[in-house]
Specification:
alpha/beta; Aldehyde Oxidoreductase, domain 3; TIM Barrel; 2 domains; 6-stranded parallel beta sheet; 4-stranded antiparallel beta sheet; 11 helices; 43% helix; 20% strand; elongated
Length: 279
């Protein structure tokens, strides 16, 4: 992945874990001892973040030899070797936990996302993530969502207008909020409005919202909303969507489905790192 802030992120993660030194490794392993380690899949899933793991070891030691055998986006099964690392054993031991944390977390997100994408692949609705990400890791976690086959919603408060219930409460009405946003943001920025009722849906539509988010509506309300809008705005379903009802939501005819669970309720994929040779 191409992310200019990756080195700083890796640096912070290593500082958090190693501190001033890896006291166990320093007391047991000679500086010049060399070894080789393997990243091995313990569970089936989708790889994401192997390049980040490579960056962890290369930050600790520029002479490390990291060989990627399975790239991001590929399916893995138990026993598959994802990558090998050769170099000083001190480096292998000091970097393994941080490298695994990134790889397991991002692969878990990509794997869960792929499962959800497969549930809607025969419908036109596109699956989106949300801003419910781990603080400091949003760029990486949203990257993992893309690896899994879904799309990203806005990255933050800076790259899209999302008028929610509290904004409407502060301004006074949906119509006023949309008009103010239209006047104050560049013409290239789309305006999305969150609605909870059909009356709000109609108001957002008449106000000229580009995207209307149907917040926690049931299936029948979503179908009604699709029939009302008739393509005059994009519709996004959000809230209360899970693996059990995702396919049904996709069949309502909405354009997008956003799921916070893609990032905030995901288990890390089981991947191990084992040193197999130590000279």
């Amino acid at each position: 992945m191409n992310y200019l802030g990756l080195t700083d992120l890796i640096k912070r993660a290593l500082e958090e874990d190693i501190g001033y030194c890896d006291i166990t490794t320093m007391s047991l392993v000679p500086y010049d001892q060399k070894g080789r380690g393997l990243f091995c899949a313990k569970s089936p899933g989708i790889v994401a973040g192997i390049g980040v793991s490579q960056g962890v070891f290369e930050y600790l030691d520029a002479d490390i030899e990291f060989k990627i055998l399975i790239n991001d986006g590929a399916e893995i099964k138990p026993g598959d070797v994802i990558a090998t690392v050769e170099g000083r054993v001190q480096t292998l031991l000091s970097g393994e936990r941080v490298a695994l944390n990134f790889l397991q977390r991002l692969s878990g997100i990509a794997s869960k996302t792929r499962q959800m994408v497969d549930l809607v692949k025969f419908n036109s609705a596109q699956l989106l993530d949300t801003r419910k990400t781990t603080p400091g890791l949003r760029v990486l976690e949203k990257y993992a969502v893309r690896v899994g086959g879904a799309r990203n919603h806005r990255f933050g408060l800076f790259d899209g207008v999302m008028i929610k219930d509290n904004h409407i409460q502060a301004v006074g009405s949906i119509a006023k909020a949309v008009a103010m946003a239209r006047q104050n943001v560049p013409h290239t920025v789309k305006i999305e409005v969150e609605v909870e009722t059909m009356a709000q849906l109609q108001e957002a539509l008449e106000a000229g919202a580009d995207i209307i988010m149907l917040d926690n509506m049931d299936i029948y309300e979503m179908i009604e909303a699709v029939n009302i809008v008739k393509g005059r705005a994009l519709l996004e379903a959000s809230g209360g969507i899970n693996e059990g009802n995702l396919a049904e939501v996709a069949r309502t005819g909405v354009d997008f489905i956003s799921m916070g669970a893609l990032t905030h309720a995901v288990s890390s994929l089981d991947i191990s790192f084992d040193i197999i040779d130590a000279d």
